[in-house]
Design brief:
215 residues, mainly beta, six-stranded antiparallel beta barrel, 14% helix, six-stranded antiparallel barrel, Elongation Factor Tu (Ef-tu), domain 3
Length: 215
Amino acid sequence: MFGGFVENLGSLKNISQKGGFTEIEISMTNLCLSGEIIKGRSIAINGVCLTVIAFNKNSFSVECSAETLSKTTFSSLKAGEVLNLELPLKLETFIDGHIVTGHIDTLGTLHSIKDQKDNSELTFTFDRRFAENIVEKGSIAINGISLTAYNVSDDSFTVSVIPHTFQATNLKELKVNSKVNLEFDILGKYILKKANLNDKNSGLSMGKLAEHGFI
């Protein structure tokens, strides 16, 4: 489990095919992370939860299945690309964002960037099939970064990013039409599923639940 609080960056060093898996090697730009990485440990890379299979003091490797490649931006990674890294939460760790599982729901596309005096506004579009999974002022993980969505519609939303987050993550690398990994709030997804199972004709939705203070 992760919190969506990205403190470290890495860069893509190498991609290779190993049997039915794709092996990805990542260089650590912040070497203080190296002491925390061990074989078998989970790590979120651009919000995708993967397992470390090998490491040294300067880099580590993970394996991606065909399913992971098909559901994330990993299918289009390029050498040198900057990646957000987050280690799993510890029991005594503050959850600075929200509960992030590292299981990507869909891809989003950066529609626009608007620079403000003290923040940047980024608007993303996404497949409207997921419209019920996002609500006004709800949490969303973008490339593993916990952010708050607003101006939510059936196929778009906006987030406001403070300068520190913009500079400390790979959001600064994004351009219009860049693809990102999206993970919707896991608590909201469970609530929505439970509501639908209880009464498929009730007309309940994530929007209605939020409107009445349930989420």
